[in-house]
Amino acid sequence: VAVSNVRMENLKLTRSVVGWHTLNIGGPSGSNRHHNLTFINLDITGGTNFMEDGYGVIIRQAEDILFQGGRVHDIDMISADGLYIVNDTARITLDGIEVDHIVKGNGIFFQNYPINLALRPTGVVLRNSVIHDNGLQGTEWLGVTDAHIYDNTIYHNGKTGVQVEFTSERVVVERNKIYN
């Protein structure tokens, strides 16, 4: 079932069930699309689990999504990313969020997986955010199109601050502070 026109504000979400994600938006390819979802000042944490993987937030099959303010943090699982945006997503804005202490993963990971150019994440904006102390990349962009990454502070991540990979097109990275 797809949802539209949902707004959540000032909530704390904590992952407590093994094998689940703290906030799961969307479904597998071919499912109904979610539209016009707004998340303001959410505090999302994933906890610790050395046997399972999971994400703070996973978004797929969705469009017109806004995350404004808030924090995704302290996730220590066998494989995890703070925010994982994958296939068939459009017009997603991450504005003024903090993503930190994702121990074994990326702070934010946009991915086209499995690779299907028709289903790439498109129209993505990451701005005014702070991304730090994550195990892999601060942000990783794989197979994304029409993205704008600007005015962010990204530091002390395990590998790189911003990594834009193959099959990505029209990605603009500007005015970011990236160090350590």
Key features of this structure:
mainly beta; 20 strands; 7-stranded parallel β-sheet; 180 residues; 0% helix; single chain
Task: Describe the protein.
The model has no long low-confidence stretch (mean pLDDT 87). This protein is an all-beta fold. It has a 7-stranded parallel sheet, with no helix packed on it. A 7-stranded parallel sheet has the order 2-5-8-11-14-17-20, with no helix packed on it. A 6-stranded parallel sheet has the order 3-6-9-12-15-18, with no helix packed on it. Helices cover 0% and strands 57% of the residues. It is built from no helices and 20 strands. The termini are far apart. The radius of gyration is 15 Å and the shape is globular.
Annotate the secondary structure layout.
Elements: E1 4-9, E2 12-14, E3 23-25, E4 34-40, E5 43-53, E6 57-59, E7 62-68, E8 71-79, E9 83-86, E10 89-95, E11 98-102, E12 108-111, E13 122-127, E14 130-132, E15 139-142, E16 145-150, E17 153-155, E18 162-164, E19 169-174, E20 177-179
Parallel strand pairs: 1-4, 2-5, 3-6, 4-7, 5-8, 6-9, 7-10, 8-11, 9-12, 10-13, 11-14, 12-15, 13-16, 14-17, 15-18, 16-19, 17-20
